[in-house]
Amino acid sequence: MANRNFLGPSGVVLGKGEFWALTLAGFSLFFGTWALVAWAGWLPANLLPSPLAVWDTLVRLWQQPFAGHVYADHLLASIQRFLMGWALAVGIGIPLGLLMGWYRILDEIVTPLFDSIRFVAPLAWVPLAALWFGTGIGGPLLIIFVGSFAPCVISAYRGARLVEPRLVEAAQTMGASGRQVMQHVLVPGAMPSIISGLRVSAGLGWQSLVGSELIVVGAGLGYLMVQGQGNLATNIVIAGMIGIGIVGFAIDVVLRGIEAWFKRRWGQA
User: Which pTM value belongs to this model?
Assistant: First the structure.
């Protein structure tokens, strides 16, 4: 496999070693500054615990239940909710976007309503979700779905619109049906855009997770943070934030790898 290069400032290409060295330097600067501020006592320990105190809390949460569950259970509950809500958004949003890009009349019917709804922030749906679903699983799924849905539709729509008309015309000339054109021309042509949109969709859906878990649930990282706030335990709140950040980063890395694979396959990288 060829060595990967990374684009730095002003177009300077960084080697893989240089890239990871700078990444490590960034993390070191962040955690070093955090430790310095905590050690100097510029903020009270109950407002800004040290990195070591948060680490000790993480280790303890893995072993001892808090808010009814150990850390792993909260983590798995959040991941399960996210995957369900995101899968629902992908399963509905991608086909809808492709159809809107293919059928102009559907585009004209759906776009005004879609443009009106997509600007409503996911957190604005929390009260309505609570009224509709109460403490059930439906509320969190709705919030995650709303956060993930729009990028799925937009990426599939743009991908479909970017497919060259001559390819569609050639397939139709050869007797391809509408379903065959969709399957063999439209979907492959739109796939790079769809994959890029999935990264954005997953990021927004995962960010919506905390808001979804403000609805009464029994487990989850957002629930853990809310309970930590109620107990004035800043270290627990930060421990929950760390879990959200790590899992979100892992999701993006996986989707970034899939995106790179598709680009190589389509000769775009």
Answer: 0.84
